[in-house]
Structures are given as C-alpha cells and as structure tokens.
C-alpha cells in the first residue's frame, strides 16, 4: 500500500498490510466488515500476521493517517469506517 499519508508517516509493513486488508473488507460506504458488523480480531491477526497486542497501535496509526475513522477495537472485533479520502482505493464486499 503506497498511500501518500502512510508513506509520509513511514508506516511499518504491518500498518500497510492492515490498510490493504481493511480496504478489501468494507461495504460500498466504507464501513468495515460484512453488513457493517466489523471484522473478527482473529481474522485480522491471521491476515496481517501480527500479535493481537500490536493491533491497537496499527489501528492508531491508520487513524492518525486519516485512513480510518470511528475505530473501535475490542477483544473480539474491529469496527469502524474508512475515510472518504480512501474510499476510491477499496474493493467493497459483494452484498
């Protein structure tokens, strides 16, 4: 993922991989997960190959880079929405 704001922030590979993963797991309006229900934490950690304890830091970096908004990370899932700025980079889930 070579988004300008992520490059300027010198985002680590894990942050970029999470950004790419989130871009493929949204609906057309950018809400995360099928039906806007979010993405399961175990799914994210498997796809991004990070320890669950590192995920909050990656989410914070994406929020700071204006990639993600309204992000809430619980023990079970990540909910939130991609910002309007990155919606053109997404591959929305099929309804």
Features of this protein?
3 strands; 15% strand; 39% helix; 95 residues; alpha+beta; 3-stranded antiparallel sheet; 4 helices; Arc Repressor Mutant, subunit A
Concise overview:
This protein has 95 residues and is α+β, with helices and mostly antiparallel strands. Helices cover 39% and strands 15% of the residues. The chain is built from 4 helices and 3 strands; from the N terminus they run H-H-E-H-H-E-E.
CATH fold-level assignment: Arc Repressor Mutant, subunit A
Helix segment tally? 4
Overall spatial form? globular
- Which CATH-level-2 architecture? Orthogonal Bundle
Mean pLDDT: 85
Spans where pLDDT lies below 50 across 5 or more residues:
none
The arrangement of helices and strands along the chain is HHEHHEE
Share of residues in strands: 5-15%
Write down the CATH class. Answer: Mainly Alpha
Sheet with the most strands?
Answer: 3 strands, antiparallel
User: What helical percentage do the residues reach?
Assistant: 25-40%
CATH superfamily: Winged helix-like DNA-binding domain superfamily/Winged helix DNA-binding domain
Structural domains: how many = 1
Query: What is the radius of gyration?
Result: 12 Å
- How many β strands by DSSP? 3
For the largest beta sheet, what order do the strands appear in spatially? 1-3-2
Structural class: alpha+beta
C-alpha termini separation: 25 Å
């Amino acid at each position: 993922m070579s988004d300008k704001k992520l490059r300027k922030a010198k985002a680590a590979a894990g942050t970029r991989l999470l950004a790419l993963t989130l871009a493929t797991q949204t609906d057309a309006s950018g809400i995360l997960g099928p039906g806007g229900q979010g993405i399961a934490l175990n799914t994210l950690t498997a796809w991004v190959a990070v320890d669950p304890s590192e995920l909050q830091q990656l989410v914070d970096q994406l929020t700071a880079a204006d990639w993600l908004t309204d992000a809430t990370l619980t023990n079970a899932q990540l909910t939130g929405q991609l910002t309007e700025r990155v919606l053109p980079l997404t591959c929305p889930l099929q309804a």
